[in-house]
Amino acid sequence: MTGGAGFIGSHVVEALLDGGAEVRVIDSLDPSVHGPRGPGGGGAALDLDPRAELLVGELGDPAWAAAAVTGVDAICHQAAKVGLGVDFGDVTGYVAGNDTATAVLLETLWRHGFAGRLVLASSMVVYGEGLARCPVHGLVAPAPRRTVDLEAGCFEPGCPRDGCHERAARVPVDESAPADPRNVYAATKLHQEHLCGLWGRAAGATVVSLRYHNVYGPRMPRDTPYAGVASIFRSALAGGRPAQVFEDGGQTRDFVHVRDVARANVLALTAEVASGAYNVASGTPHTVLDMAVALTEAFGPDAPRPQIKGGWRPGDVRHIVASPRRAAEELGFVAEIGFEAGMAEFACAPQRAAATA
Question: What b/e sequence results for 243-255 when a residue is b if at least 16 CB atoms lie within 10 Å of its CB, and e otherwise?
């Protein structure tokens, strides 16, 4: 398990151990993700089930990668730099943490003659804006939103065909939708899928890419620009501040609980499936404002109400929701934790320590 001491990884580790697996974790315990280290490595390791073996090292270092994969029969690759980041100045960090580290892992597997299963933590961001239905032209792939429109407060993507610009209604995307990454993180996740797929074909191994939607739940890091929007809102409310909502709050997402995601990983590691990609989603979309309101209400009547901040983030998309059908039919995965119950739990769940520079 790479990144097994992280937010999602630590939950996957617990699910695997509870199912009787033996788990080796490699994690760098990067302070920018896990917070300041205490004695013996501190911070993130405290969230790791003590039944797991822990190697504290860099996956991008061939020696550490070799130590991690020796003697294992399956790989669950969760380690990654996540989120939109600050700006394009983060590009080398994303490429190093996601693409280069994955390449080192795959080369190590190749040199060890490993041909077991590899499960990759991918993301819904590979779809960009996904698909939409124009009342004039039918099914279309919305073009990237124009800066001039965003600055004018026009957030909804229009139909890209023939200067139409009719408002197009979102459509849940399935795994056959064309990839269209709109930011650096998305580009690296798609490249990870490509690299893993190429290795799988060369090695004769099964590669399962799980395209996570907006994962939330206990152990999310707080106070970092690399965290998900749920964590950012949760951190604000815990500090007595209102959730600051970009645009008009109408961005649509699928929020899926981390324990459901962990269960999807166990199924991906054990089910009789061929190589391929699977959406990991609840199947019930909500807006970002819905999520801000749900968290605020869970904090109680004295919590400050969400504020519509306006503005926008470069590389962000307006709507991306998925069809979970393939995961249900082939992996046997159906999300079990509902939005309201999950957000109520998350409102009082522990988060990771604040990240360091």
Answer: bebbbebebbbbb
Integer CA distances (angstroms), 95 to 81, 102, 186, 223, 277, in order: 9, 10, 11, 23, 21
Q: How is residue 196 written in tokens?
A: 């893993």
- Read off the pLDDT of residues 43-62 as tens digits, 9 standing for 90 and up: 444 689 999 999 999 999 99
Instruction: Kindly list the distances between the CA atom of residue 270 and the CA atoms of 116, 287, 330, 332, in Å, as whole numbers in the listed order.
Output: 11, 33, 12, 11
What is the token pair recorded at 49? 């089930």
Strand ranges (DSSP E) for the chain?
24-27, 53-56, 74-77, 117-123, 131-134, 138-140, 169-171, 207-212, 214-216, 244-246, 252-253, 255-257, 276-280, 286-287, 307-310
Contact 116, 205 (CB under 8 A): yes
45, 353 Cβ separation under 8 angstroms: no
Amino acid identity of residue 111, one-letter, is R
Place of tokens 């109520």: 344
CA distance 92 to 98: 10
> Which token pair is 160?
């890209």
What pLDDT does 35 receive?
Answer: 63
In Å, what is the CA distance from 249 to each residue of 153, 239, 290? 12, 21, 8
Cα separation, 353 vs 41, whole angstroms: 14
